[in-house]
Structure formats: structure tokens, C-alpha cells
Amino acid sequence: MELYDGLLSRRSIRKYNPEKTLTKDEILDLIRAASFAPSAHNKQPWHFLVIEDKEVLRSLRSVQPWTSFAKDAALAIIVCADTEETFHREKEGWNYAQIDGALAAQNLLLACHAKGLGACFCGAAPMPMVVDNLRAKFNMPETMLPIAIIPIGYPEETPKTPEDRLNMAKIHWESF
Ligand SMILES: Cc1cc2nc3c(=O)[nH]c(=O)nc-3n(C[C@H](O)[C@H](O)[C@H](O)COP(=O)(O)O)c2cc1C
């Protein structure tokens, strides 16, 4: 798949073939692509929590209510970023964890699309309750910020291609 075509044709997929699974190498190929994302100062602060257990996939909705379709996914990957590993300035109270993690998540979505898989970004940070729920459920250290829950599987839906999303009203030349 040509990269530019892939960028335009990727859609959030929420229906999967519940019978099909991925091999470990296939999963690692997806995570490799995520790990080639850009990150501030090239810190690569991401961590990937792989969930294949069907019961756990089914239970994700209790920690993030908009993930009910994960029950039929082959797996879910929770993309996290460590707030100490990421480029940060503690005294000034900022860090790049959410940005670095989101970029890795987008690479993961695109890698899934390139491999004929369906996936959907389901948000975690900055929602405090979802972050707390995920940390508690999966024994994450306090420095670990869950960014996205990404259910992945063989697609059983083909969402409509949206209208062109290029919106001239959102483009500002030289100044707002
Ligand atoms: C930060 C963020 C959080 C999202 N959370 C959810 C979610 O919890 N559940 C869900 O089904 N989709 C979620 N989505 C997917 C969006 O609904 C989807 O990207 C949007 O409708 C555009 O559709 P497309 O991805 O097919 O282009 C989220 C997307 C982003 C970027």
C-alpha cells in the first residue's frame, strides 16, 4: 500500500472476526512500526501492553466505557508513555508523554491498516479516571501514562470513505 493512499484510507474499525488471531511475530511487526515514531529528543518513552486474553478484552469496557467492541478483537495494545523517560522539565511541570505516545499510537494504527488489519484508537490520558483504572488493573507504575487502548483484529466492516477532510477554513497562510 502506498503510504499516502494509506493515510487517506485508514478508518477506525470496530468490528472484527472473533475467530482470527495474530502470531507473536505479526504483533511484534506492528510494535516495531510504532517504535519508529518520532519522539521528543528521541527518548522513545513508549511501552506497549499486549492483551490477548479474551476475558480481559471483554473487561476493558469496565475501565474505559467506549471499548465494548474490544471483546471480538484478536488483541488490544495499550500504548503507554513513561513520564520520566520522556523529555520533560519537572520544575516547569511539563512533559511530552502524551505527544510521544500518541505518535506511536498513530504509527500502530497505520501499520495495522498496511497489514490488512482493523484497529481503533480508544482514548485513555488525559481522562484521570481511565488512567487510574488502567494503572490499577494492569499494575502500571505511577510514572506510566496510558495513552490509548487499541483493539486490533481482522476487519468485519468497511466504513464509508468520508468526504474530503481538507478544509480550507482551517488553513491559515502566514498568520491567523
Ligand atoms: C483521542 C481519541 C480518543 C478516541 N476514543 C475513542 C473511543 O474511546 N472509542 C471509540 O470507539 N473511538 C475512539 N476514537 C476514534 C474516533 O472516534 C475516530 O478516530 C473518529 O471518529 C474519526 O474516524 P476515523 O478514525 O475512521 O477517521 C478516539 C480517537 C481519538 C483521536
Molecular structure report:
The protein has 176 residues and is of the alpha+beta class. The protein has a single domain (11-157), classed as NADH Oxidase, CATH 3.40.109. 30% of the residues lie in helices and 18% in strands. It is built from 5 helices and 7 strands. It has helices at 3-9, 24-35, 54-59, 97-114, 128-137; strands spanning 46-51, 75-82, 88-89, 94-95, 118-119, 122-123, 144-153. The strands form 2 sheets. Strands 1, 2, 5, 6 and 7 form a 5-stranded antiparallel β-sheet that branches. A hairpin with a 4-residue loop joins strand 3 (88-89) and strand 4. Bound molecules: flavin mononucleotide.
Question: What is the topological layout?
Answer:
Blueprint: H1 3-9, H2 24-35, E1 46-51, H3 54-59, E2 75-82, E3 88-89, E4 94-95, H4 97-114, E5 118-119, E6 122-123, H5 128-137, E7 144-153
Name the overall outline: globular
Strand content: 15-25%
CATH topology: NADH Oxidase
Low-confidence parts: none
**Main beta sheet strand tally, sense and closure:** 5 strands, antiparallel
Q: Can you tell me the number of structural domains?
A: 1
Percent helix range: 25-40%
Question: How many strands appear in the DSSP assignment?
Answer: 7
Radius of gyration: 17 Å
The end-to-end distance, rounded to whole angstroms, is: 36 Å
List the ions, cofactors and other small molecules found in this model: flavin mononucleotide
CATH class call? Alpha Beta
Label the structural class.
alpha+beta
Order of helices and strands: HHEHEEEHEEHE
CATH homology superfamily: NADH Oxidase
CATH architecture: 3-Layer(aba) Sandwich
Helical run tally? 5
Mean pLDDT: 97
